[in-house]
Structure prediction request, 357 residues.
Amino acid sequence: MTQWIEGEEVNKCLQQMAAAGGIHTQYQFRNADCSTLVLKGLMLSNSVLEGINFSKAQLDGSVFMNCSIANCNFSQAEMNQVQLQTTLIKKCLLLSVHASRISFVQSRALDIDASESKLSKAKFVQSELSDINFTKADLSHATFATTKLSKNNFTEATLNQTVLFRLDLRSSTFKQAKASKVVMSGANLEGVDLSSLSLVRAQFTRAKLSKAIFNGSNLLGACFVGAQLASASLVRCNLQNAIFSGCDLSNAILDESNISSARATRCNFTKASLSSLNAARSVWHFSNLQFCKSSKSTFNYADLIGADLRNADFHDSTFIDTRLDSTLREGAKFNLGALARAKEPDKDYAAYVLAKA
Prediction:
C-alpha cells in the first residue's frame, strides 16, 4: 500500500480518480477537507480513509470495496446508490445524508450517527451494525437481511415496509418509530418496548415476542401467526382485524384493547388478562382460554366454536349473538343470564368448522 496522502493532495487525487473512472486500489487518505466536492462514481478498493470531511460532497454511485473508513464526516452528503462491500466504517457522521438505495454487503458499521438521514430502500446484507443512531432516519422499504444488529437506536425513525426478517432486535430501541407494514417475522423481540407505535399491518409471523410491550400501539391488521407472545403486554392496543392463529399468549395482558374482527384461532390464552376487551365479531376457534380473566368484556357476535373456557372468569361480560357451540365451560364464571342471548347452536355450521379444522 502507498504512503499516506494528506491535505490538498487528497482533494486533487480523489477528483482525478472520480473523473477517470475505474477502480483505484491500495491508497491511504487522511486529514483532508473534501466538503462540497463532486466525487460521483468514485471507486476505491483496498484503501483507507481517515479523518476526512466529506460533508455536502456528491458521492452518488461511489463504490468502496475492502476499504477502511474511520472518523470521517459525511453529513449532508449525496450518497445515493453508494456501495460498501466487505468494508469497515466506524466512528463516522452521516447526519442528514441523502443515501437512497445505499448498500452494505458483508460490511461492518460501528458507532455511526446517521440521524435524520434519508436511507429509503437501503440494503444491509450479511453485515454487522453496532451502535448506529438512526434517530429520525427514513428507512422506509429498507432491507436488513442476515445482518447482526447490536444496540441500534431507531427512535422516531420511519420503518414503513422495512424488512427486519429473522433478526435479533432485543438490544434495539424503537421509541416513537413509524412502522406500518414493517416485516419483523421470525425476529427476536423478547422484552422489547414497542409501545405507542404505528404498526398497522405489521408482520410478526413466528416472531419471539415474550414479555414484549405493545401498550397503546396501533396494530390494525397486524399478523402474529405462530408468534410467541407469552407474558406480553398489549394494553389499550388497536388490534382490529389482527391475526393471532397458533399463538402462545399465555399470561399475556390485553386489557382495554380493541380486538374486534380479529382471528385468534388455536391460540393459547391460558391465564391471560382480557378485561374490558372489545372482542366483538372476533373468531376464537379451538383456542384455550382456561383460567383467563375477562371481566367487563364484549364478545358480541364473536365466534368461539370449540374454545376451552374452563375456569375462566367472564364476570360482567356480554355474549349477544355469540357462537358458543362445542365449547368447554366447566368452572367458568358468567353473570346470571349472560349466555341467554348467545346464538342458538347451529349443528351444521359447527360441523363445518370442526371438519375444516
User: Anything to note?
Assistant: The radius of gyration is 27 Å. The chain has two helices and 17 strands. Residues 348 and 354 are 10 Å apart (CA to CA).
